[in-house]
């Protein structure tokens, strides 16, 4: 069985996998409308067996200091595979009680009309997960949704921080931010501030 420990070897391997499978150099327009000399296609890694395992180990490592957490989740689509992988490995790290949730970009117009899906109870302490953080907009949208349910966001964990303002956005809300890696770990310099 593969190693289930987040250590320097796992971190180095995740860097290698991101460089090989997710990092694209060129000219790209980001969701924010800004132009960038690189793009991270996070789902190329989060939706692979090796990438999902490495990321889940890193997430679980960050969650270890927060035994009060009842659930992990985030905005669909970036968070979906990370949530699933984290829940799959959580029992091997003493967190078989952990639950997951996903935040839709907008509430369903049919059925229960849910904005947040999953077994999330009001008052729960949660961690927000995402693949890539630029300004933090996706995670902030998820935070708003779960706080509206009465949940307390204990921390935000992302696979990769582009170093373009997300840390400041979470600091302004008083929420600890824990990226597994930054864009500099991939040997790429971040964009200059807008």
Automatic annotation (TrEMBL):
Keywords, ordered alphabetically: Glycosyltransferase, Magnesium, Pyrimidine biosynthesis, Transferase
Family of the protein in this entry: Belongs to the purine/pyrimidine phosphoribosyltransferase family. PyrE subfamily.
Role this protein plays: Catalyzes the transfer of a ribosyl phosphate group from 5-phosphoribose 1-diphosphate to orotate, leading to the formation of orotidine monophosphate (OMP).
A biological process term (GO) from this entry: pyrimidine nucleobase biosynthetic process
Quaternary assembly: Homodimer.
Reactions that this protein is recorded to catalyse: orotidine 5'-phosphate + diphosphate = orotate + 5-phospho-alpha-D-ribose 1-diphosphate
Gene for this chain: pyrE
Top-level taxon of the source organism: Bacteria
EC number: 2.4.2.10
Protein name per UniProt: Orotate phosphoribosyltransferase
Pathway recorded for this protein: Pyrimidine metabolism; UMP biosynthesis via de novo pathway; UMP from orotate: step 1/2
Obligatory cofactor(s): Mg(2+)
Stored InterPro entries: OPRT, Or_phspho_trans_dom, PRTase-like, PRTase_dom
GO MF assignments: magnesium ion binding; orotate phosphoribosyltransferase activity
Binding site for orotate: 134, 162
Positions that bind 5-phospho-alpha-D-ribose 1-diphosphate: 104-105, 108, 110, 130-138
Gene3D superfamilies assigned to the protein according to its UniProt record, in alphabetical order: 3.40.50.2020
